[in-house]
Amino acid sequence: MSEQDIPYEDLIIVKLSSNHDLTGFKCSDDDLDEFIHFDALPQRDDRLNQTYICKYKEEIIAFFTVSADSVKINRKDKKRIGVNYPAFPAIKIGRLAVHEDYKSRNVGSTLIMYVIGLALKLGEEVGVRFISVDAYRGVEKFYEKNYFVELAECEDEHLAMYTDFENWLPSVRY
Protein backbone atom coordinates (compact mmCIF):
# COMPACT_ATOMS: atom_id res chain seq x y z
CA MET A 1 0.00 0.00 0.00
CA SER A 2 1.23 3.48 -0.88
CA GLU A 3 2.42 5.63 2.00
CA GLN A 4 1.11 8.88 0.47
CA ASP A 5 -1.07 11.18 2.53
CA ILE A 6 -4.78 10.71 1.95
CA PRO A 7 -6.35 14.03 0.90
CA TYR A 8 -9.02 15.39 3.24
CA GLU A 9 -11.54 15.62 0.42
CA ASP A 10 -11.28 11.83 -0.12
CA LEU A 11 -12.38 11.11 3.46
CA ILE A 12 -15.96 10.80 4.69
CA ILE A 13 -16.49 11.47 8.40
CA VAL A 14 -19.85 10.58 9.97
CA LYS A 15 -21.26 9.64 13.35
CA LEU A 16 -20.98 5.96 14.18
CA SER A 17 -24.27 4.05 13.96
CA SER A 18 -25.29 0.45 14.47
CA ASN A 19 -25.48 0.15 10.66
CA HIS A 20 -21.70 0.47 10.24
CA ASP A 21 -19.77 -2.75 9.69
CA LEU A 22 -16.70 -2.62 11.92
CA THR A 23 -15.55 -6.20 11.43
CA GLY A 24 -12.53 -5.21 9.31
CA PHE A 25 -11.29 -2.46 11.65
CA LYS A 26 -8.03 -3.17 13.49
CA CYS A 27 -5.63 -0.50 14.70
CA SER A 28 -2.95 -2.60 16.47
CA ASP A 29 -4.07 -1.47 19.94
CA ASP A 30 -6.29 -3.97 21.73
CA ASP A 31 -7.89 -1.35 24.01
CA LEU A 32 -8.91 0.87 21.08
CA ASP A 33 -10.07 -2.09 18.99
CA GLU A 34 -12.20 -3.33 21.91
CA PHE A 35 -13.66 0.15 22.40
CA ILE A 36 -14.85 0.59 18.81
CA HIS A 37 -16.23 -2.95 18.56
CA PHE A 38 -17.95 -3.20 21.95
CA ASP A 39 -18.08 0.09 23.90
CA ALA A 40 -18.60 2.99 21.47
CA LEU A 41 -22.33 2.56 20.85
CA PRO A 42 -23.32 1.79 24.48
CA GLN A 43 -21.30 4.81 25.69
CA ARG A 44 -22.99 6.99 23.06
CA ASP A 45 -26.38 5.74 24.21
CA ASP A 46 -25.40 6.66 27.80
CA ARG A 47 -24.54 10.20 26.53
CA LEU A 48 -20.91 9.87 27.63
CA ASN A 49 -19.38 10.66 24.22
CA GLN A 50 -19.98 10.66 20.49
CA THR A 51 -17.94 8.48 18.14
CA TYR A 52 -17.26 9.40 14.53
CA ILE A 53 -15.91 7.06 11.90
CA CYS A 54 -13.72 8.00 8.96
CA LYS A 55 -14.21 6.18 5.65
CA TYR A 56 -11.93 6.03 2.63
CA LYS A 57 -13.13 4.26 -0.49
CA GLU A 58 -16.04 2.78 1.52
CA GLU A 59 -13.67 1.26 4.14
CA ILE A 60 -13.68 2.42 7.77
CA ILE A 61 -10.08 3.50 8.31
CA ALA A 62 -10.25 5.51 11.54
CA PHE A 63 -12.44 6.73 14.36
CA PHE A 64 -12.43 9.30 17.11
CA THR A 65 -14.60 10.03 20.13
CA VAL A 66 -15.41 13.46 21.56
CA SER A 67 -17.05 14.69 24.74
CA ALA A 68 -17.27 17.82 26.86
CA ASP A 69 -14.35 18.63 29.15
CA SER A 70 -12.63 21.41 31.04
CA VAL A 71 -8.90 21.92 31.48
CA LYS A 72 -6.72 23.64 34.05
CA ILE A 73 -4.13 25.23 31.81
CA ASN A 74 -0.61 26.35 32.63
CA ARG A 75 0.14 29.83 34.02
CA LYS A 76 1.81 31.00 30.84
CA ASP A 77 -1.33 30.35 28.81
CA LYS A 78 -3.57 31.91 31.48
CA LYS A 79 -1.44 35.06 31.33
CA ARG A 80 -1.50 35.07 27.53
CA ILE A 81 -5.30 34.74 27.48
CA GLY A 82 -5.69 37.34 30.24
CA VAL A 83 -8.34 35.46 32.21
CA ASN A 84 -7.66 33.72 35.51
CA TYR A 85 -10.38 31.06 35.49
CA PRO A 86 -9.68 27.91 37.51
CA ALA A 87 -10.68 25.80 34.47
CA PHE A 88 -11.44 26.51 30.82
CA PRO A 89 -14.05 24.92 28.53
CA ALA A 90 -12.76 22.22 26.22
CA ILE A 91 -13.71 19.37 23.93
CA LYS A 92 -11.99 16.09 24.77
CA ILE A 93 -10.75 13.62 22.21
CA GLY A 94 -11.48 10.48 24.21
CA ARG A 95 -10.22 8.00 21.65
CA LEU A 96 -8.54 8.33 18.27
CA ALA A 97 -7.38 5.37 16.20
CA VAL A 98 -6.30 4.75 12.63
CA HIS A 99 -6.53 1.35 10.93
CA GLU A 100 -3.14 -0.35 10.89
CA ASP A 101 -3.05 -0.29 7.06
CA TYR A 102 -3.49 3.51 6.97
CA LYS A 103 -1.07 4.75 9.63
CA SER A 104 1.41 7.49 8.64
CA ARG A 105 -0.89 8.81 5.92
CA ASN A 106 -1.98 11.99 7.75
CA VAL A 107 -5.38 10.57 8.71
CA GLY A 108 -4.93 11.22 12.45
CA SER A 109 -3.93 14.86 11.92
CA THR A 110 -6.90 15.30 9.59
CA LEU A 111 -9.21 13.98 12.29
CA ILE A 112 -7.79 16.49 14.78
CA MET A 113 -8.53 19.28 12.29
CA TYR A 114 -12.07 17.92 12.02
CA VAL A 115 -12.44 18.05 15.82
CA ILE A 116 -11.22 21.67 15.74
CA GLY A 117 -13.99 22.37 13.22
CA LEU A 118 -16.59 20.68 15.45
CA ALA A 119 -15.41 22.70 18.43
CA LEU A 120 -15.49 25.97 16.47
CA LYS A 121 -19.05 25.21 15.35
CA LEU A 122 -20.05 24.37 18.94
CA GLY A 123 -18.29 27.56 20.01
CA GLU A 124 -20.92 29.56 18.14
CA GLU A 125 -23.42 28.35 20.78
CA VAL A 126 -21.36 27.81 23.95
CA GLY A 127 -17.88 28.72 25.17
CA VAL A 128 -15.10 26.36 24.16
CA ARG A 129 -11.45 27.28 23.74
CA PHE A 130 -9.34 24.12 24.03
CA ILE A 131 -9.10 20.56 22.77
CA SER A 132 -7.88 18.06 25.37
CA VAL A 133 -6.67 14.49 25.14
CA ASP A 134 -5.33 11.85 27.50
CA ALA A 135 -2.69 10.51 25.11
CA TYR A 136 -1.29 7.05 25.41
CA ARG A 137 2.38 7.17 26.32
CA GLY A 138 4.41 6.61 23.20
CA VAL A 139 2.15 8.67 20.92
CA GLU A 140 2.67 12.05 22.54
CA LYS A 141 4.96 13.08 19.65
CA PHE A 142 1.96 12.78 17.31
CA TYR A 143 -0.01 15.19 19.49
CA GLU A 144 2.96 17.55 19.92
CA LYS A 145 3.21 17.69 16.12
CA ASN A 146 -0.42 18.81 16.20
CA TYR A 147 0.25 21.68 18.68
CA PHE A 148 -0.71 19.88 21.89
CA VAL A 149 1.29 20.56 25.04
CA GLU A 150 1.52 18.59 28.25
CA LEU A 151 -1.10 19.50 30.81
CA ALA A 152 -0.24 17.16 33.65
CA GLU A 153 1.27 13.80 34.38
CA CYS A 154 -1.32 11.09 34.84
CA GLU A 155 -0.91 8.18 37.20
CA ASP A 156 -1.48 5.56 34.51
CA GLU A 157 -0.39 4.98 30.93
CA HIS A 158 -1.79 8.35 29.77
CA LEU A 159 -0.44 11.87 29.43
CA ALA A 160 -2.95 14.74 29.71
CA MET A 161 -2.42 17.24 26.88
CA TYR A 162 -4.27 20.20 25.35
CA THR A 163 -4.16 22.59 22.43
CA ASP A 164 -5.51 26.13 22.16
CA PHE A 165 -7.56 27.08 19.11
CA GLU A 166 -5.29 30.09 18.76
CA ASN A 167 -2.46 27.73 17.78
CA TRP A 168 -4.53 26.44 14.87
CA LEU A 169 -6.43 29.49 13.72
CA PRO A 170 -4.62 32.65 14.83
CA SER A 171 -6.64 34.81 12.47
CA VAL A 172 -10.10 33.64 13.66
CA ARG A 173 -11.82 36.31 15.74
CA TYR A 174 -15.48 36.72 16.66
Question: How would you describe this structure to a colleague?
Answer:
- This protein is of the alpha+beta class and 174 residues long.
- 28% of the residues lie in helices and 32% in strands.
- The chain has helices at 30-45, 75-81, 107-122, 140-145, 165-168, and strands spanning 11-15, 50-56, 59-71, 88-98, 130-136, 149-153, 158-164.
- Strand 2 (50-56) and strand 3 form a beta hairpin.
- It is globular and about 45 Å long.
- The relative contact order is 0.15.
Instruction: Please count the beta strands (DSSP E, at least 2 residues each).
Output: 7
Pattern of helices and strands: EHEEHEHEHEEH
How many helices? 5
Low-confidence stretches: none
Principal-axis shape equals globular
The pLDDT mean sits at 90
Helix content bin: 25-40%
Strand order of the largest sheet: 1-2-3-4-5-7-6
Terminal CA distance reads 43 Å
What percentage of amino acids are in beta strands?
A: 25-35%
Major beta sheet summary: 7 strands, mixed
Radius of gyration of CA atoms, rounded to a whole number: 16 Å
Class from secondary-structure proportions: alpha+beta
Brief description of this entry?
By secondary structure, the chain is an alpha+beta fold. The protein is 28% helix and 32% strand.
Features:
174 residues; 32% strand
Question: What is the element layout, followed by pairings?
Answer:
Layout: E1 11-15, H1 30-45, E2 50-56, E3 59-71, H2 75-81, E4 88-98, H3 107-122, E5 130-136, H4 140-145, E6 149-153, E7 158-164, H5 165-168
Parallel strand pairs: 4-5
Antiparallel strand pairs: 1-2, 2-3, 3-4, 5-7, 6-7
